[in-house]
Amino acid sequence: MSSRPARSTWFLIIILIAAIGAAAWIYFGPGYKTSPLPVLEHSEKPNAKESANQNENSDANDNENSAEQRAALEELITNADVRRGHSLIHMCIECHTFDEDGPVRFGPNLFGIVGARHASKEGFAYSEALKSMQDKIWTQDNLNAFLTGTQTYAPGSRMTYPGVPKAEDRADIIAYLKTLKP
């Protein structure tokens, strides 16, 4: 008896490899770059002055967090790991892009989202839930609330992602998003 696999086994292996390649092509699309994550070329730490300005610009009525929660979030973001935030967006890349002038997918491009108005990215058809919030700014507090639970923050939003449960992970993601600016 030969120790060499039968030809049908090799045929199945080749078919399996082709199927995996086809699935990757369907998942990432035909025009994806060598890495689906954008290259981190922005500043490593968010600017503390920008953080303070964004919190000052948020309307008092929009702030549902207590002062302690806001202070805790501010501390988490100040000490956040931008590179870790960059690696955590892997869960977002199926629906969002992060490059300047990146295409719209199932969700809007998130380049420059921090400080932008809700439902303001061109080329994306927002749900009525987010359109009704167009007067709000995406501050780090609002992003934290949205990332905690999209349906809690914006009931009726088409984004059904259940949320990022760990505050440290949300802080790292927000710190990364703050670096994405022109």
Task: Walk me through this protein's architecture.
This protein is mostly helical. The protein has 2 domains: 32 residues; 143 residues, Cytochrome c-like domain (Cytochrome Bc1 Complex, Chain D, domain 2), CATH 1.10.760. The protein contains 8 helices and no strands. Helix 3 crosses helix 8, helix 4 crosses helix 8 and helix 6 packs across helix 8. The termini are far apart. About 11% of the residues have low confidence.
Q: Largest beta sheet, briefly?
A: none
Q: Determine the CATH topology of the largest domain.
A: Cytochrome Bc1 Complex, Chain D, domain 2
Contiguous helical run count: 8
Q: Report the CATH superfamily of the largest domain.
A: Cytochrome c-like domain
Number of extended strands: 0
Into which percentage range does the β-strand content fall?
A: under 5%
Give the proportion of residues in helices. 40-55%
> Mean of residue pLDDT?
80
The helix/strand order is: HHHHHHHH
Q: What does the overall shape look like?
A: elongated
CATH architecture of the largest domain, please? Answer: Orthogonal Bundle
Structural class: mainly alpha
Q: What is the level 1 CATH name of the largest domain? A: Mainly Alpha
Residue stretches low in confidence (pLDDT < 50, at least 5 long) are: 30-44, 59-63
How widely separated are the two ends? 67 Å
Tags for this entry?
single chain, 182 residues, mainly alpha, Cytochrome Bc1 Complex, Chain D, domain 2, 8 helices
